[in-house]
Design goal:
two-stranded antiparallel sheet, about 20% strand, about 140 residues
């Protein structure tokens, strides 16, 4: 018995369940084995990157700490290292295991797709931005 695979509208791969919205990063990394899989239409299980750290982009630098830290720990680290704290806009997000920074919305999509989300409290935040409490 062969399973019917659908073509993902974003990466073109044949998959069991196509993406229903664009992922925060290309779902098909263009390298030789993915191209070969696309040509033969074999089912490909590509592990998605994992979120491994909280991060803050500030003043041209990305500051981060690994799980189970929170963003306020990073803010305290910035203050300890600069003696100045945050003066001006910052961008809070997360780092993937490949080192790439994601903002809170991108990180939520990734965490949802790879099963990293913990159940949220019914009376808590229900939006589409990721918080470290959603992960660890």
């Amino acid at each position: 018995m062969t399973e019917e695979l659908e073509k993902c509208p974003f990466c073109g791969l044949r998959v069991e369940t196509p993406c229903d919205e664009p992922p925060p990063m290309p779902c098909a990394q263009v390298d030789e084995w993915m191209l070969a899989a696309r040509k033969t239409e074999h089912r490909v299980v590509v592990p998605l990157p994992r979120i491994v750290a909280v991060a803050v982009r500030y003043n041209g630098k990305t500051w981060s700490l690994p799980a189970p830290n929170r963003h306020h720990h990073v803010l305290r680290m910035i203050f300890a290292e600069t003696g100045d704290g945050i003066r001006g806009p910052d961008l809070q997000g997360f780092l993937m295991d490949n080192g790439r920074f994601l903002n809170r919305k991108q990180a939520y999509l990734l965490a949802y797709r790879n099963g990293q989300l913990k159940p949220r409290r019914p009376d808590g935040y229900q939006g589409l931005e990721l918080f470290s409490e959603d992960l660890w």
